[in-house]
Specification:
single chain; alpha+beta; six-stranded mixed beta sheet; two-stranded antiparallel ribbon; 25 helices; 10 strands; 60% helix; globular
C-alpha cells in the first residue's frame, strides 16, 4: 500500500494534470466562442464586438432674422428674443417627432444609409410618474425588433434648456459621427417639409442648429477582451470540476481512495486551538468584523473618493481585506487553515453563478451592440464577491462555531432593530448620522427620505431601502424563535423573546407588506420543521401580539391595512401585476438564457426597461428559464439541506439548521415581492447563512455513509443473533428466507 507521502505526491501531480487539461479546454472554448474561424487563410480571428459612438448637441431655435447672425449658445439672449420657455417646452415633443418614420427617412438620406437600418428612440425627461413612461408589451416588442439594426439613434431633451442631445451608435466611429451630423441636416429637412405643409412662415419655423461638430466616442475595444476572459474563467472552472470529479470516481472505483465518510473527522474531533469566540484564529474574527459591517454600517452609501472603473463602496474595500486574511491562512496551513470541501450547497451556488456568466457570454454580441456589455460584466463581478463571501464562510467556520456565529448575528440584528425603531419614532437615521463622521476621503450619501405614492415614510436603517431592511430582519427572526424553543430557564427565554419582539417591530416599522409576510413565512416554516416543540412558541406569540402594536402602532396599522382586499388596487400592486405582461416580449426573445445577467437595468435605460419589483421576473428576463431554475434551485437546495439536517435531530446542528431553513424560505418569498438581488444586504446575509449551512454539511454529508453502514451492520447482527436466541429459549426459529 502506498505511503502517505506517495499518495500526496500522486494527488499533487493529479491536480496539476487536471489544471493543465482544464486550461487547454478553456483555450479551445475561447477559440470557438470568442473567435470566428477563417478558411482563407486558415486560422481564427477575434469576433467583432466593437461599436462606434458619437454625440451631438442641437439647439432648438428659429431662423436667423435680418438683424444678422448671432451666437447660438447665447441662451440668455434667446430667453427674451425667441421665447426661451416656449422653445424649451417644444423640445421633448420635437424629439419624439424626429424618431418617426418620415423624419428617419430624411436623416437616413442625409447620412447615406438605408432608413430600415436605423433604430431610433427617445428618453422621456419630463417630470412625470415613472409608470407613464415605462414601456408596455407592444412598445417593448417594437424596441426589441429594432434592436438588431446596425445603426442606433437616441434623442434626449435637456430639462430646462431648448437643446437636444443626440447619441449615435454605428459599426464604426466614422459612421456614428456621420449619423449624428445627419440628425441636424435631416431633421431640418423634415421640419421644413412640415412647415411648408402647414403654411408656417419662415420666421416661425423651428430649426435645429448644431452646437459644434459631433464628438466620436470609444469603439469599445475592451468588449472582446472582457468576453474572452469571462469565457476562459467559466470554461476553466467547469472543466476543472468535471475532471476532478471524474478522477475521484475512478480512484474510488479502483479502490485506491477511501470513501470520504470513512476518513472525515467528526465535528468534535476537529483540530485547532478552540471554538470561536474562544479562539485566536484570525479568520472567524475577520468574518465577525465583516458581519458587523453588514448589519450596522450603510456601506453601500459610503464611497472612497478615488477615480476607479467601479465605485469603491465600503464593502468593496472590506471584502478584499477579508479575502487576504483567508488566502494567508490557506497558504500558512496548519489547524487554522480553511477547509475547502464541496457540498450540495456549493454546487447550487456555483450553478447559479455559472449560468449567470453563461448568459452574458451567449449574449455578448447583442450586449456589445447596445453598448451595455460593461454593465453585466460589473454585475458579474459583484456576484463574484457574494460567492467569495460564501466560500470564505463555508471553509473557515467549523461546525461547532455555527451556533455562536448565529447568536452573534442575532445580537447585530437586535442592535440594528433598536436603531430602526428609533428612526421610526424620531425620523433620524442614526446609522447614516454616525457614518457621516468618517474622514474626508470618504463620501457618505444622504439617507433615503420622503414618502412614496401611498404616503409611507422611509425607515431603512443601514440599508438603501425599507424592503431591503425588512428582508435581512426576516431572515434573522428564525434565529430568535429557535433560541426561544431550545433554551431552558426563564431569563434566556425572555432574552430571545425580547430579540424576536425587537426584530418584528423593526420589520413592521418599514411600512412594507413584506415586513409582515416574510416573517410570517419564516415562522410557518419553523413551526413545520419543529412540530413537536411548536407549542412552546404560543407564549412568545402572545408577547409579540402585545408588544408589536406598542412599538410600531402606526406602521402596523398601515401594513395590515395594505393587506386588506379593498386596498390592493394601489399603484405598487398594479405596477407589479403589469410587469408580468410587459416583460413577455423580453422573455420570448431570449427564452432559455435571457438577455444576459445584469443587463436589464432601469437606471441606465429607463426608456426601454421597467422597474421590476420581483427578483423572479428579473431572473427570467436576464437569465431565461434556465437561469430562473438555477436561482430557485439554489434557494431550494439551501432550504432542503437545512431541513434534512433539522430532521436528523443532532444536537449540534438541529437548531441552526432549522433557523437557516426558515431564513431560506423567507428569502424565496421575498424574491417574488421585490428585486432583492439589486440590493447588496439581502444577498450578503443569505449567502452568509448558506455558508454557515455548508460548514455544518461538509462534515455531516461525509459521515452519513459511515453511519448508514453501521446501521446496516447492526441490523445484520441482530438478524443473525435473533434465531440463536430463540433456539436457546426452546422456541422454533423463524425462517429468514421466503
Amino acid at each position: 500500500m502506498p505511503s502517505t507521502s506517495q499518495r500526496s505526491d500522486a494527488a499533487r501531480r493529479r491536480r496539476r494534470a487536471v489544471a493543465g487539461l482544464s486550461a487547454a479546454a478553456a483555450l479551445l472554448v475561447i477559440l470557438l466562442v470568442a473567435c470566428e474561424p477563417g478558411p482563407f487563410p486558415p486560422g481564427f480571428a477575434p469576433r467583432d464586438l466593437t461599436r462606434g459612438t458619437a454625440v451631438a448637441h442641437l439647439l432648438v431655435d428659429r431662423p436667423v432674422t435680418e438683424s444678422g447672425p448671432r451666437d447660438p449658445t447665447a441662451l440668455d439672449e434667446l430667453r427674451d428674443e425667441y421665447q426661451f420657455d416656449a422653445l424649451t417646452n417644444r423640445t421633448l415633443p420635437l424629439a419624439h417627432a424626429l424618431t418617426s418614420e418620415r423624419a428617419l427617412t430624411e436623416i437616413a438620406r442625409a447620412a447615406g444609409i438605408d432608413p430600415g437600418d436605423i433604430a431610433a428612440s427617445t428618453q422621456n425627461t419630463a417630470s412625470v410618474p415613472r409608470t407613464l413612461v415605462e414601456p408596455d408589451s407592444e412598445l417593448r416588442s417594437h424596441q426589441l425588433a429594432a434592436a438588431e439594426r446596425p445603426y442606433r439613434l437616441e434623442l434626449q431633451a435637456r430639462p430646462g434648456e431648448p437643446v437636444l442631445d443626440v447619441y449615435a451608435v454605428a459599426p464604426t466611429s466614422a459612421d456614428a459621427k456621420r449619423l449624428a451630423a445627419a440628425a441636424a441636416t435631416g431633421g431640418n429637412a423634415f421640419l421644413a417639409a412640415l412647415a411648408a405643409e402647414g403654411g408656417t412662415t419662415a420666421e416661425n419655423q423651428i430649426t435645429l442648429t448644431s452646437l459644434g461638430p459631433p464628438l466620436a466616442g470609444s469603439d469599445g475595444a475592451r468588449a472582446g477582451l472582457m468576453v474572452a476572459l469571462l469565457t476562459f474563467a467559466l470554461a476553466f472552472a467547469a472543466a476543472f470540476a468535471a475532471l476532478s470529479a471524474a478522477a475521484r470516481w475512478r480512484l474510488r472505483s479502483a479502490g485506491l481512495e477511501p470513501a470520504r465518510g470513512r476518513e472525515a473527522p467528526s465535528p468534535a474531533a476537529e483540530p485547532g486551538d478552540g471554538t470561536w469566540p474562544r479562539t485566536s484564529r484570525p479568520l472567524p474574527w475577520a468574518i465577525a468584523a465583516f458581519l458587523g459591517l453588514l448589519w450596522l454600517v450603510p456601506f453601500n452609501a459610503i464611497t472612497l473618493n478615488v477615480s476607479t472603473p467601479i465605485d469603491l463602496t465600503l464593502d468593496r474595500l472590506a471584502l478584499p481585506a477579508l479575502g487576504a486574511v483567508w488566502i494567508a491562512a490557506l497558504i500558512r496551513g496548519g489547524p487554522g487553515a480553511p477547509h475547502l470541501r464541496f457540498t450540495r450547497v456549493h454546487a447550487a451556488v456555483a450553478a447559479f453563478a455559472g449560468v449567470a456568466a453563461l448568459s452574458v457570454i451567449v449574449n455578448a454580441g447583442d450586449l456589445a451592440r447596445g453598448l451595455v456589455l460593461e454593465l453585466p460584466v460589473k454585475k458579474l463581478g459583484l456576484l463574484a464577491t457574494y460567492a467569495a463571501l460564501f466560500v470564505i464562510v463555508a471553509s473557515s467556520i467549523r461546525p461547532r462555531e455555527v451556533r455562536p456565529m448565529l447568536t452573534y448575528v442575532l445580537v447585530l440584528a437586535c442592535v440594528c432593530s433598536v436603531g430602526m425603531v428609533f428612526e421610526y419614532r424620531s425620523g433620524a437615521n442614526p446609522f447614516y448620522d454616525i457614518a457621516a463622521l468618517l474622514p474626508g476621503p470618504f463620501t457618505v450619501a444622504p439617507p433615503p427620505t420622503g414618502f412614496d405614492e401611498l404616503g409611507r415614510g422611509s425607515v431603512s436603517g443601514p440599508t438603501d431601502h425599507g424592503l431591503e431592511a425588512a428582508a435581512v430582519l426576516s431572515m434573522t427572526l428564525p434565529i430568535a424563535l429557535v433560541g426561544f424553543i431550545e433554551r431552558r430557564g426563564l431569563w434566556p427565554r425572555l432574552a430571545y423573546a425580547l430579540a424576536a419582539c425587537l426584530i418584528g417591530a423593526a420589520a413592521v416599522a418599514t411600512f412594507r407588506k413584506s415586513g409582515l409576510l416574510a416573517p410570517l413565512a419564516a415562522g410557518v416554516t419553523l413551526v413545520w420543521l419543529a412540530r413537536r416543540e411548536a407549542l412552546r412558541l404560543a407564549p412568545l406569540a402572545l408577547v409579540v401580539a402585545l408588544v408589536l402594536p406598542f412599538a410600531s402602532f402606526q406602521a402596523l396599522g398601515s401594513v395590515t391595512g395594505q393587506l386588506d382586499a379593498g386596498n390592493l388596487d394601489v399603484p405598487t400592486v398594479g405596477d407589479r401585476v403589469s410587469d408580468y405582461n410587459a416583460v413577455r416580449p423580453d422573455f420570448l426573445s431570449h427564452p432559455l438564457l435571457g438577455a444576459g445577467f445584469g443587463s436589464y437595468e432601469h437606471a441606465t435605460n429607463p426608456g426601454e426597461n421597467r422597474i421590476l419589483d420581483s427578483d423572479l421576473l428579473t431572473r427570467l428576463v436576464e437569465m431565461g428559464v434556465i437561469g430562473l431554475a438555477a436561482f430557485l434551485a439554489m434557494i431550494v437546495v439551501v432550504a432542503a439541506t437545512a431541513a434534512r439536517m433539522a430532521r436528523e435531530r443532532e444536537p449540534l446542528t438541529r437548531g441552526p439548521a432549522t433557523a437557516i431553513a426558515a431564513a431560506a424560505v423567507a428569502f424565496g418569498v421575498l424574491s417574488a415581492f421585490f428585486d432583492e438581488w439589486s440590493f447588496p444586504h439581502a444577498p450578503y446575509v443569505f449567502l452568509t447563512l448558506a455558508g454557515l449551512l455548508a460548514a455544518m454539511a461538509r462534515s455531516g454529508e461525509r459521515t452519513a455513509p459511515a453511519s448508514a453502514e453501521r446501521r446496516r451492520a447492526t441490523g445484520r447482527t441482530r438478524a443473525i443473533a435473533a434465531p440463536r436466541s430463540r433456539a436457546a429459549a426452546g422456541k422454533p426459529a423463524r425462517s429468514t428466507t421466503r
